[in-house]
Amino acid sequence: MPCVGDYVEFEPQSEGYGAIEDILPRKNQLVRPAVANIDSVILVVSADKPDIDFLLCDKLLIQADRMGIHPVLAINKTDLNKDNAYVINEQYSYYDTVYVSALEHHGIEDLEDVIRDRCVCLAGQSAVGKSSLVNALSEELQLKTGGLSKKSERGKHTTRQAELIYLKDLNAYIVDTPGFSMFDMGDLKKEELGQYYREFTEYAGECRFSSCMHDQEPECAVKSALEAGEISAERYDRYLKLLNLIGERKE
User: Fold this and answer.
1) Percentage of the chain with pLDDT > 70?
2) pLDDT band at residue 149, thresholds of 50, 70 and 90?
3) Quick check: 211 and 204 in contact, CB under 8 A?
């Protein structure tokens, strides 16, 4: 099936119509959001509302690394809660991060540097400001934006489908995607999970067992680093949760 971002062989037909003859090989593909041939995934989170879903962020970052796609964390709405933006970044200090405000146009130049000459995908929860950031990047665009439901304080879906947008001034393509709250880890195995936690890889080869999954094993270098405060306890707790989820799925 064709996917947003595909390179295809296209046969023009009459009156502006045509037919896809073939889909060319993809260098990478994300299942959700369903996009292909991406240079970078920009994970947009909010420093204010809606509250960040850290587990979803971890899953997206893991999947990007698995696919060989460069992940970047964009913390939006920093004008509303700058302190919380720094708190969020503490858990993701091993990833490239930009601080932005779509409303105030702060940090947009930093975001442009990430996007320039690339094909990138914006991903994240509803109402974090993905479409607003695209609008801030180009005055010509007026993508529909939403907000929070007053009742649930969750995002209202305004982007209904993934859309490939060309930003002429940056010579870049950007994929604006619907917000979502679920993400499938695919065929990831328990013994592979640790290699996609960048803070764990610093201690590769230092555990007693080469097959250490940094859970119940003795003399684990990752757990020692955790006890020393060198690894985020919140990130480690979510690692254990994902480890259990993968095990439950296999059973």
Assistant:
1) 86
2) very low
3) no
Give the chain as a DSSP string: ---BT--EEEEE-GGG-EEEEEEPPPS-EETTTTEES-SEEEEEEESSSSPP-HHHHHHHHHHHHHTTPEEEEEEE-TTT-HHHHHHHHHHTTTSEEEE-BTTTTBTHHHHHHHHTTSEEEEE--TTSSHHHHHHHH-TT-------B-TTT--BPP---S-EEEEEGGGTEEEEE----S----TT--HHHHGGG-HHHHTTTT-SSSTT--SSS-SS-HHHHHHHTT-S-HHHHHHHHHHHHHHHHHH-
**CA–CA gap between residue 33 and residue 177 (Å, rounded):** 7
Contact 3, 67 (CB under 8 A): no
Cα torsion for 228, 229, 234, 240, to the nearest 10°? -20
What are 173-183's pLDDT values in tens digits? 998 777 554 55
What pairs with residue 72 in β-bridges?
42, 96
Structure confidence at residue 162 as a pLDDT band (50, 70, 90): confident
CA separation, residue 231 to residues 70, 74, 187, 200, 202 (Å): 22, 21, 26, 8, 10
Query: pTM here?
Result: 0.85
- The predicted-structure confidence for 7-21, as pLDDT tens digits, reads as follows 999 899 888 888 999
Distance CA(52)–CA(59), nearest Å, equals: 13
Q: How many CB atoms lie within 10 A of CB 142?
A: 10
